[in-house]
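Predict fold of histidine kinase; 675 aa.
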Amino acid sequence: MTQKLGLLVYWLFIITQGFSQSKDELNQHSDSLYRQLQQIKDHEEKAHALFDLSFFWSDYDTTKAFSFIRDAETVLGQTGNSIYYRGVKSFYRAAVYFEADPDKAKQNYMEAENFLKNVNAEKRTEASRYRARLWGSYGALLQREGKAYEYVEILIEKVIPLAKDIGDSSLMGNNFQNVAMNLMNLGDYEKADEYYEKALQLLKGKKEALEVRFTLFINVARNALLYKNYHKSGDFLDSAAVLAVQIPRSAYIPIYHSVSGSHWAAIKNYEKAHAHFESGLSAAKMQNNDDLVATLLFDQFAAYQANNQYAPAKKKLLEVLPYVRQKSSLRNKQMVYYNLATTATELRQYQEAVKWYEAYKNVSDTLFSDKSQEQIHELEKKYQTAEKEKAFLQIKTENQKQQLSLQNTRMLAGALLLTSIILGVVSYIWYNALKNKKKLAAQKELLLQEELKNHRQQEKLNLYHAMLQGQERERSRIARDLHDGLGGMLASVKLKLSAVATNVDKQEINKESNMELYTIINQLDHSVNELRRVARNMMPESLLYMGLEAALQDLCNAMSNAELKVDFQSSNLNDNYPQPFQIAVYRIVQELLTNAVKHSGASQVWVQCSQDGGKFFISVEDNGRGFDVKNDLFEKEGIGISNIRNRVEILNGQLEIDAAAGRGASFHIQLDIYG
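Predicted 3D structure, encoded as tokens:
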């Protein structure tokens, strides 16, 4: 599952030093910085310190952030009206709007760019540093909108050249890492590795950049893990572990444990994997970072699932669920619901699986609908813009010649027509896509229902198979008891009566009584023979001691009589079939022959058995009165077809019946010898 390794949330781009601090700690830190800047005498240096304090508070309290910008403006006085400081103020205002109003943030970043790109040589280096920062932030906003390629393009074409111009290797290294992280999230791991190598070369040995190097080692390890280079991921995680000891309060500590846990899970060392996940959870909870808590819980689920431990895997998913539900991200909910459905299916909790699948389907439909609404909204904005341009052109052309007015009107009409066509095409595409999406969801639901049906059918077959095995064991026991117990007793009684008859003959006593005695002995002989016949039918000795072919031949001979001839033919049969298989085949043939004797009125029955590879074939035909296969009544009248069908299904076989009233019946069966 490609979603398992960190795609639950985009925390790679939003980690800051501040979120691990409590509100009291933030105030203490801010007060400390404020006291320090009060000691600064230089106005411009003091203003920059106030700007930095505004930047610090922009993530937590926008009111405070704006107040520090106003303080900086007051300190600068008339100097603040220069092109350079107007650009700087726009940059810091954009930083305050970054989370609250992204569109306004982008507008302020572009204002800052327009000012800073025109500063004089004296402030060129500082301006370039701000321009690199603003383009990086602007690209990050695009990345949040799903425009990851545009972000990479800005980093490569804007930010890195600016950093190179001012000779800032740390800034270049950071942004090479940003490029690599975006390429990694886009799935281009090989290209990402190239930019990670550039970042490593630039930041190599920079002791003042411990946090940046720690982050870089972890991200290189993550990228290696994604393209399954476990040796490389292990080496960089070892390097990160050394730095983790030096910066134990780093905001990246939970991420280090997350990547380490995923690494150990990938190489099947689940004990170390879960140890890292637990350490990461503790760190994330100390930092009050719910996104990282959810990510680490999801990584634990992935490790349990990879180890086929579905019960603890499901438990971790249920722990993730509250974090996902309190967020607005539909994709996260969609992924968690889907994994809950599949995990419940693995645990055979089919009712619960259907519930989670329904939730997954609902979120998927909403997600698709929202995306389509965004596309339509964007087209509507373009349409409204076109309308505004149209109004502007109409006012402008009032004082122009009639010919120019007509030409402009035609151009606007064409633009309006084109926009309408685009709207129509997009609406049609959206409608078809939504229709296909719903159709696909319905098919998935049908597949899930079919799977549940197959599971129930398999459980039914397993139950019937167990019942048949129990019946065969009980038949064997009863046959053994009849043959060895009651049969022996009847034989003993016969022998004693025979001895009495012999003594009577010798003494020549009452010949009439003597004849009655011999009649009783003959009846006893018939009873013993009948008893042995019943015992043989329940568990034939020939099947136990002579094999399947001999037992079937013996069965056919026993079923033959003056009115019915049973002909048995065999081809390529073995002597070493599994005993359950032999018993099943014998019972099927026995049932078919019994049906022929009782119901067909036939004078001739042909039985053929053969083997070809792993398949066993049975054919039983008669020349009797036949029956109507399409009429279900024959099963209810004792012919026993359902019993034969069940035995055939247990052996993964196929039954074909060719019969019609007045022209006999044929039963053709194919069985899988090895199940």
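The mean pLDDT is 78.
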